[in-house]
Amino acid sequence: MAERLARAGGLDAASAGTHAVPDLDMPPAAKAVLLELGADPDGFASRRVDAALLAGADLVLTATRAERAHCVTLASAAAARTFTLRQFGRYLEALPPEPTTLRDIAQVRGRLQPGSPFDDDLPDPFGGPIDGFRVCAATIARILTLLADRPRRDPG
Known about the structure:
By secondary structure, the protein is mainly alpha-helical.
């Protein structure tokens, strides 16, 4: 859902799962929620994250701390640009609404207390009722809106 919500918000995004079975469609409830939010679920196929995908990403956002740790293990060079989605949202909210770089985010990361799993992990709605998908999608959309609305500046 995050990939499709990001794209609907004008962000360039690709998704991959740490334990994904390749080439599966998303659950029907996820599709329904994406359609409710104006995002396009068509053409999705799951894939597993790998080091090459992480190395080419400007920013890596994961659903949980365990997934973040998995990604950093696969591509340690991506550690400084890998966050849980909720963690990244907290860091953006802690900055003034002005142009931002990953260096700014890193400074906030160093100032704020680490979050608990409750603070950082996005509950997985898989296998549950559609309302769980709605709550998950609303959280994702809120944080992606913070990112899309944030001006960016050259890190130089």
